[in-house]
Specification:
Elements lengths: L1 H11 L7 H23 L5 H11 L2 H6 L13 H30 L3 H9 L1 H25 L5 H5 L25 H20 L5 H4 L2 H7 L2 E3 L2 H26 L7 H10 L1 H8 L7 E3 L2 H52 L1
Antiparallel strand pairs: 1-2
């Protein structure tokens, strides 16, 4: 049955890949047996509406998958899929930002073997810190779900805004992002957005969160960030406010269940704003001297090399973003065209 196959496919997206095939095979056998038993009692095949009602009784794909996940002492099985998704996402961003910051510091100070080794040795601490914050947030959520189960029922069961007829088609990815929509992913995107926004707002008063011990070293250098970086910072904050607000609206309205091609394209388009601010700065002055009168003659050449190198790197990033944006438009147009042809 198509609806049952779609239900099992949606469950599979929340299962660990090592046991996914075995769990789905066992679950399919159990559900097909339940379905046959219901049909035998009625003496006829179930209608599509009756199958939908039965699947709603079973629970959403997210809730069903959580029953097959290992028990966690700190993070329960209902929250664990979202926790694991957010944790991996935070790992990637934390390491990427850390690598970018250290690349800038190495460019200013010069690449030496001890500096590179020191930067590599601090990566585990960065990952551990990120994991600790994410775990702390989800542990608080786990405590809240046990202390206030009624108020947190939508978070635990994810049955709100879920309807069996809203399941994605078989092997039908979300063409905008390459994955079928899921409640776990929608919740993870929102939680990660809130964490990222909180982290961004803490940076001006706690730059250590971005640079680590390097912030003290940077303070001793004769260079400082140009004023354009503050404009860049607030543009990034505004972009994250828009994205997080959009994700919250998706959760409240159920829009996470459908394709969000326009939203993804709009977000990518807005990302050009902070990048454009850095590229448009006159004479590519992304770093300036703290004391130009004393250091102009001695450090002007080094400062020029650093600014030009960073500007070139930003141009490469801009080119990559443009290619991704154009490719996203092409994929969206192809998806619309395909659906139009199928509808005919």
């Amino acid at each position: 049955m198509d609806l049952l196959d779609r239900y099992l496919q949606a469950i599979g997206k929340h299962l660990p890949w090592q046991r996914k095939a075995d769990i789905l095979a066992e679950l399919r056998a159990n559900l097909e047996a339940q379905l046959e038993e219901r049909e035998e009692k009625l003496g006829r095949p179930l209608t599509n509406a009756e199958v939908e009602a039965w699947l709603k009784e079973l629970g959403s794909p997210f809730q069903m998958a959580s029953r097959y996940l290992p028990q966690q002492s700190l993070i329960g099985p209902a929250l664990f899929p979202t926790y694991w998704y957010v944790l991996r996402l935070v790992f990637v961003w934390a390491v990427a930002i850390y690598a970018l910051v250290n690349a800038v510091l190495l460019g200013i100070n010069g690449v030496t073997a001890p500096a590179v080794v020191d930067a590599l040795l601090r990566i585990p601490a960065v990952i551990f810190t990120a994991a600790a914050w994410v775990t702390l947030v989800f542990a608080a959520l786990e405590f809240a779900t046990h202390r206030y189960p009624r108020q947190c029922a939508p978070l635990l069961a994810s049955t709100v805004q879920w309807e069996p007829d809203g399941l994605p088609g078989l092997d039908e990815p979300d063409t905008a992002v390459g994955h079928a929509p899921s409640y776990a992913r929608a919740v993870a995107e929102f939680i990660f957005g809130v964490l990222l926004l909180a982290w961004l707002l803490l940076l001006p008063s706690h730059p250590y969160l971005l640079m680590g011990p390097g912030v003290y070293y940077l303070g001793s250098l004769p260079y400082r960030l140009a004023p354009v970086w503050m404009q860049f910072y607030w543009a990034v904050v505004a972009l994250n406010v828009v994205q997080t607000g959009w994700n919250l609206i998706n959760l409240l309205t159920g829009a996470w269940q459908g394709p969000r091609r326009l939203q993804h394209l709009a977000t990518k388009a807005l990302a050009f704003v902070p990048l454009g601010l850095l590229l448009a700065v006159p004479d590519h002055l992304l770093f300036v001297l703290k004391n130009p009168a004393a250091d102009e003659g001695r450090l002007a050449s080094t400062l020029y090399t650093v600014n030009e190198g960073l500007h070139t790197a930003l141009m490469v990033v801009l080119l990559i973003c443009i290619v991704q944006f154009v490719w996203g438009i092409i994929r969206s147009l192809r998806a619309v065209t395909r659906r139009s042809v199928e509808a005919q």
